[in-house]
Amino acid sequence: MECCDIIRNTWKTKQREERRRIFLSLFYHTVLWDLDGTVFESGEGILQTARETMAHFGWPEPEPERLRRFVGPPSHESYERIAGMPHEMAQRAGHWHRARYLAGNWRMSRFFPGIPELLRDLRQEGAKLAVASTKPRPAMEAMMDAFSLWDTFDFFACANPDGTGGEKPALIRRALDALGEHDNSRAVMIGDTRYDAAGARDTAVPFIGVLYGYGTREDMEEQGARVFAADAGELRRLLIG
């Protein structure tokens, strides 16, 4: 198990038997969730951190449309690919960004409307839920604590504290393996960016793109996405009916 992965040992024999019966009413048995832009409206804190980081390094801030793309990818990649920093500077900026975000900017996050209720109902229906997020482990743990989500998810696949290990296909595979899901057609990845869509495509897992997050439909379609939800209500219909 990767050092950033956390699993809840909830799948006892008696529970399994009951959930096999309930599974028949679900479209997907295992639901993998991105966090930023999918579960949490966290853009304010991430973008504020990006602005502070670029000011700290004396780097010009991208226009707003490009800046929004900082939500989702590992921070050091964003500074190199989106802001245009040289590689070594981008690595230092990513480190500064992670420290600054963890120091308090993550507290600007809040749930998207309807998501807590959907997570609760999926668990009640017997679905296995996992986080598959590029967010570094310390920030992920802080948010799980603050929003009381440790008992909602069965497995947490995330990036290492230094931002490495956050490749989306690897996160998806680790989550599926940990939850014993060997039929990818019974699982689904929920996300809002091209990285989520590409990760699902590369692991042959169905994908639902949410349009209320920070990515664009066009970017997700370029990575093979074909199913989308405009809000939590549409997402509920696609997952539960």
Written account of the structure:
- The structure is a single chain.
- Helix 10 (217-222) links the parallel strand 8 (207-210) and strand 9 (228-229).
- This protein has helices at 13-23, 43-56, 64-67, 75-81, 87-102, 115-124, 137-146, 168-178, 194-202, 217-222, 232-239, and strands at residues 6-7, 30-33, 40-41, 110-111, 128-136, 155-159, 187-191, 207-210, 228-229.
- The protein folds into 2 domains: 6-41 and 111-239, Rossmann fold, CATH 3.40.50; 43-108, Orthogonal Bundle (DNA polymerase, domain 1).
- The protein has 11 helices and 9 strands.
- The strands form 2 sheets. A 7-stranded mixed beta sheet has the order 1-6-5-2-7-8-9, with helices on both faces. Strands 3-4 form a two-stranded antiparallel ribbon.
What coarse outline follows from CA principal-axis ratios? globular
State the fourth-level CATH superfamily of the largest domain.
HAD superfamily/HAD-like
Number of domains: 2
Individual helix count:
11
Distance between the termini: 34 Å
Assigned CATH architecture of the largest domain: 3-Layer(aba) Sandwich
**Strand/helix succession:** EHEEHHHHEHEHEHEHEHEH
The residue fraction in helices comes out at 40-55%
**So what's the CATH class of the largest domain?**
Alpha Beta
Question: What do the pLDDT scores average to?
Answer: 90
Low-pLDDT ranges: 10-14, 16-24
Q: Provide the CATH topology of the largest domain.
A: Rossmann fold
What value does the Rg take, in angstroms? Answer: 17 Å
Largest sheet: 7 strands, mixed
